[in-house]
Structures are given as C-alpha cells and as structure tokens.
Amino acid sequence: MPGTFTHEFATELYNGTVTVNTGLFINGQFVDSVDRESIDVISPVDGSVITKVSIGNARDIDIAVKAARAAFKSSWGLKVPGSERGKLLYKLADLLEKNADAVAAIEALDAGKPFVYAKGQDVQDAIDNLRYFAGWADKNHGQTIETAEAKFAYTRHEPIGTVAGIVPWNFPLYITIWKIAPALATGNTIVLKPSEMTPLSALKLAELAKEAGFPDGVLNVVTGYGAVAGQALTEHPLVGKVSFTGSTTIGRKVMETAAKTNLKRVTLELGGNSPTLIFDDANLEQTVKWVCWIIFHNCGQMCAAGARILVQEGIYDKFLQAFTDAAESLKQGDSFKATTQQGPLVSKTQLDRVLGYIESGKQEGARIVTGGSHIEGPGYFVKPTIFVDVKPDMKIVREEIFGPVAVVFKFKTEEEAIEAANDTDYGLSSYVFTENVSRAIRVSNAIEAGSCFINEAILMRPQVPFGGYKQSGYGKDMSEYALEAYTQVKAVHVNLSLKL
Ligand code: NDP
After folding, report:
1. 376 pLDDT exceeds 90?
2. What does the record list as coiled-coil region(s) (predicted)?
C-alpha cells in the first residue's frame, strides 16, 4: 500500500529507524499514483522485498510537469533572486548532512552499497555538490557588450523552465544531485525520474527538500518504469530539457523522442568502456590499490570504470600477481558490516548480464585468472574477476560489462597503448599510471575521452566537469560547465540615442 514505509536497521554501524514515504512527490505532497499501482523494491543483498513504491504513468507525469511549470512561473525561476535559491540549496545540503546516516542506510539497503562508502562518498559527494551549486546561484551573470557609441547589448542567463532529470541505479542519490543542484540553482523547476530499482533515496531527498522550504512544485519525484514514466517525460511538451544519465541505447532513444516532439534540449551522460594504462615506471603498490578502485568499486557498476587494463610488458607479471592478490582479498558481504568492501550487483537481471559476459569471455578463449562466478546464496554477488589472453574483438573487450570484471592486456610501446586505449566507441574516462610527468600529460592529451585521471581513480569533484566524448554522450555534469546546460542566453540590444 503506498504510504509510509518504515524499515528498521539494527547493525554494527547504524542503529535507528529510517522512514521513507513511498508515494509520488508532486507539488510538495506525497500522493498516490493515479491508478494506485506500486512495484516491489528488492534488496540486492538477499533478494528480499524491502518495500513497495508507487509507480507513475503518463498521467502522473503530466500532473507533475504541470505543477513544475506552474511553480516556475509563480514561485521560482526569475521570480526568486539567485541568493534566495542558493540559501534553500544550502539548507538542503545541511539537512542531508544532518540525515547522512539515514540516507546512507537507505542507499546501502536499496542499492547494496557498503554503508561506509554510501556515507563517506555518495552522501558526502551529494552534499558537496549541493553546496557548490548553491554558491553559483547568485553568480551566473551575463555580460555587457558595447556595440556602438550610444548603444550596447547585455546578455541574461535565463532558466529553461521545467527540466526532466532521468537517473540510473548505480549512484541513485549522487546522480540525482548532479541534476537537481544546477537545475534549481539556475532557476529551473524539475521533475525527477529515479530508476525503478533504486527509488528510495530520491524520495527521502524530496522529503528533505520540503523541510528545507522549497516552494511546492519546484522539485517533483515520479517513480516508475523508464519505458512509461521516463518516456512520458521525454515526450512532454512542457519539458524544455532532459538531463539523462544511463545507457547509450536509452540515451539514443531520449534524443530521438526529444527531436520528434518539441526539440527539447538534451544532455546525455552515457555508458563507457574506459582504458587504464599502466607504464613500467608506475608505483606498483599504489597503482594496484587505485586499479582495484577503478574496476571493483561499487561492484564495477560505474560508467567510468576502467575495465580495459593495458599494462606495459616490464611490469606486467608483477602487476598481474599483485592485482590478483588484491582482488582475492576484497571482502564482499552485508552492506552494514564495517569490514565489507564490495556489495552485490543491483539486481538479478544485472547478475545474469554480468555472468553472461563472463561466459562469453570463456567461450571466446580468454583466460580467467581469478573470480568468474556467482557467490552462492540469495544475493547478487559476483567474485571480482580478471581476464587475460584477451583479444581486441572479444565481446568482453568491446562492450561495457558494468560489473567487477577486468580485462588485462600487455603492451610494448606508448603508441601501441594509446591506439588500443582509443579503440572503442566510448569516450567517458581514462586512467594513466606513470611517474614520468611528460608521458602522463602526453598520453592523457592523446586519449579520446572526457576525463583522464593520472595516478588516481575516479575522484570526482564538484568543481570539475564530467561527461563523455564519442558515444559516451555530451554535455557536462558538475562544474561551471553544467550551468550552461540549464540556462539559455538572451541578448538584449539597447539604443540610448533613440536614433535610427
Ligand atoms: P538505462 O539506460 O536502462 O536507464 C537509465 C534511466 O532511464 C532509468 O531511470 C530508466 O528507468 C530510464 N529509462 C529507461 N527507458 C527509458 C525511456 N524509454 N525513456 C526515458 N527513460 C528511460 O541505464 P541503467 O539504469 O541500466 O544504468 C546503467 C547505464 O547507465 C550504464 O550503461 C552506465 O554506463 C550508464 N551510466 C552513465 C553514467 C555517466 O555519467 N555517463 C553514470 C552512471 C551510469 P528504469 O530503470 O525504471 O527502466
């Protein structure tokens, strides 16, 4: 029954009762969906049903978009000074901080993330992003341009109106904030569609936004199926922009729908298949720790995972041994256990998909050094897996696996490594390990990807843009660049002389 969901946590890490309202959040209220349907939310740790949430259809989306549009005109947008919008975002960040344990617990339960990481990274990064964009809310000015002696023009950075945020399941809260924070800071209202698999943290955030004092209708959350609620959002004529994070397949569809309807703007953060380049002069001990993060963090369910690991021949054997030892020592298990380093995959579907890739790697002749199987039991756990003897045309090399599976190649020269790194349709991220600064910069310049991390893993910061090249999409989340994606520039021409 849609209504109040209360889940009791009693663990070594967190003791307390967490409540999440499981209705749709529209116009400042939690409501039932029009046809009162709901869907089970499943725990990936043991396959049990955590709760049910309402699922919205096209009619719910229409109600939410109209509420957001009305709020844009009456109580947000250009009606509210940037400084006031910023204050509300700061307040939301403070509330998130105050409720960090509860929100991290929800994320751990719903997405199977280790609680320690959910709190220290997902929730903390979300807070940092909110504060970063709160600071921008009153600083996103236009320019004054002199055009003639008695004439000038000025530009205004105006909000687009109502935007749609469509979010995947791998970082449910964090990616939600990537959408909400710049959208609201720049004066847009938003309708958010979380993944049907991990809807709970977005609903909790809606509750906190209400407490923070955002006017009704500014932030709306409609949980539901992508093909129904997500599709309705991308079709809606009152939506001016879609900010989408998800697969390349659905991203393509979103773009097509936007083009066929009202030509709404689209930014796409899509899949990846990123290269990790390790040169002979890399610091072995540190590199192994970083590479474990690059491919095994969040159970490998990261768009920026550096799954294609290219290792120079001089360090190859030592690296492979140390990497295998590190992979085998990763502790998997219950999200709330302090020692857990890796949780499960998010769903049975994802488990089957990853096991399918592992099977295809074996069939195509790649060799498994470690892992390669499901851990028996009710949850969706897969052992950290390393493949060697891989060839560039194998499916496990060409496609995004989105699980804890690394493919390791040996290379001789820098040129060869760069060529292999760029041999992909994707271009989201890349990683270079070397103590030679000239090489690090040279190689990072040559890689066709939107990010390059030198001697570290995916440490995203709100001040730094993130987004893809090639089929990893376009448009940036985070940083000053994201502001552009949520504003439109008006040029106003002024003739002081009044003369023709
Ligand atoms: P999907 O593309 O399947 O789904 C993403 C979101 O889109 C979900 O909320 C989904 O809803 C929704 N959706 C599905 N169909 C439609 C539709 N027709 N119209 C509008 N929305 C729709 O991706 P996953 O959730 O499986 O996430 C994994 C993918 O996301 C990976 O490929 C990964 O690389 C990518 N990703 C990219 C990131 C980046 O920043 N570049 C970051 C994180 C992930 P529902 O779940 O209910 O079906």
Report:
1. no
2. none
